[in-house]
Amino acid sequence: xxxxxxxxxxxxxxxxxxxxxxxxxxxxxxxxxxxxxxxxxxxxxxxxxxxxxxxxxxxxxxxxxxxxxxxxxxxxxxxxxxxxxxxxxxxxxxxxxxxxxxxxxxxxxxxxxxxxxxxxxxxxxxxxxxxxxxxxxxxxxxxxxxxxxxxxxxxxxxxxxxxxxxxxxxxxxxxxxxxxxxxxxxxx
Length: 188
Description:
alpha+beta; Glutaredoxin; two-stranded antiparallel sheet; 5 helices; 37% helix; 15% strand
């Protein structure tokens, strides 16, 4: 399955380059909201997006609080946190979507967007994650819950952060602020 998706992505990329268009970017992918509605990534066009694979029963689950903090701090400036529940690591997201949503709201007062539960690694990984791994290489693949990708306002991957890196760390807030300031300079 992964091989077919990679070949398809390569062919589409080659066709786009040959047609004088940009290559594949995050806007070419789609998730479903935690409630099951379509969530094309293109709804975030022009925004800086942090895509995070989450899990409710992980030692890093406390990062939900920090994800909500950065979302609250920067959302009015064009920043989005997109939580992507996954049960790929240690079976630490066993619940159904309604349980996951309730857990996040009750325990962490989460109001940033969440997707349905997906695979983020392996042959059955969501196409966004296959693309991100191909774009950024093996070192940037999720190796545990709460791996973070930063997608620029143009839909291209601009950075990634490993699980232990807190969403409120200086490294991440610096990256967010730098990319948001570049965006605001373009708007002037």
